[in-house]
Amino acid sequence: MLQRPRRNRKSAAVRDLVRETNLSTDDFIFPLFLVSGSKKKIEVDSMPGIFRFSEDLMLKEIEECLKLGIKAFDVFPAYPEELKDSLATESYNPNTFYLKALKTIKQTFPEVCLMSDVAMDPYNSDGHDGIVKDGKILNDETLEILARMSLAQADAGVDILGPSDMMDGRVGFIREELDNAGFIDTSIMSYTAKYASSFYGPFRDALDSAPKFGDKKTYQMDPSNSREALIEADLDVNEGADYLMVKPALAYLDIIQLLSQNYDLPIAAYNVSGEYSMIKASAERGWIDGGSAMLESLLSIKRSGARIILTYFAKEFALMKS
Ligand code: PBG
């Protein structure tokens, strides 16, 4: 036998030498859930180890994460029902707790890379990512609201806006509004290929943001399709996106690979709530080793071509490595 592949696996030192993919805290954006008020740290039932923080305790959490080497955070707000309406007006109210917290985070820790979410669902009484009329989700009218919330978030000091709504034309629309207002350095990480997935369930629990009727299939992508991801990616590149994101990650590794082979912008993947909770739930039952399942799935996402991973495992990974 001339070829014995096992020779390159014979010891940990040799395996370290030939390893093609390495994970580091540099790779991660840590999603955080924000609630109004103070002194609140409430665990999300369907996401063990993940909390909804009020601003004061979120600042502590960020400080802890920074010490562990995590430098990028994506903050999502949970709004009470009484602040929601059909036009998501609270999303651009300059005094709303989300925008105030974003500003405080950026002022307290100017070195962090702060990302925010652009979509109507947390503030929309219909629970959809766009304006609802006669049971339909209106595209072009929604762009105006997305642009308003983008400007408000940019003004609060956010580094990267994350339009997660899947309306057509929103990246270009937002880019133009940002540029006109002088926010030329505010980046856009487009949710380029965001699929209508059942893996978002725990996130919608965390934010009480499930759609009040129907589903999101007229705007989020059909899990059966990959060619459509190329159409979306072409549009995003031409409309001025700085990053292309695939979401979810684990059931869509082929899409991550497709985009990373076809585009030169950095590719991000969102390892979503359901993907986190599946591992947590089976680890709690003793059915799998949670820590190594975490590492293996994060590795698979990076190996398939994602440069950036948004993951609820970011802190756990950092603690494991520290
Ligand atoms: C909202 C949004 C969702 C997620 C991120 N932004 C939910 C949805 O589209 O219903 C899901 C994230 C996760 O599951 O971790 N537009």
From TrEMBL:
InterPro entries documented for this protein: ALAD, ALAD_AS, Aldolase_TIM
Domain of life: Bacteria
Subunit structure: Homooctamer.
Family affiliation: Belongs to the ALAD family.
Annotated GO MF terms: porphobilinogen synthase activity
EC nos: 4.2.1.24
One Pfam family in the UniProt entry: ALAD
CDD domains: ALAD_PBGS_aspartate_rich
Protein name in the entry: Delta-aminolevulinic acid dehydratase
Stored NCBIfam families: PRK09283.1 (NF006762)
UniProt keyword list: Heme biosynthesis, Lyase, Porphyrin biosynthesis
SMART domains referenced in this protein's UniProt entry, alphabetically: ALAD
Catalytic activity reported: 2 5-aminolevulinate = porphobilinogen + 2 H2O + H(+)
Signal peptide interval: none
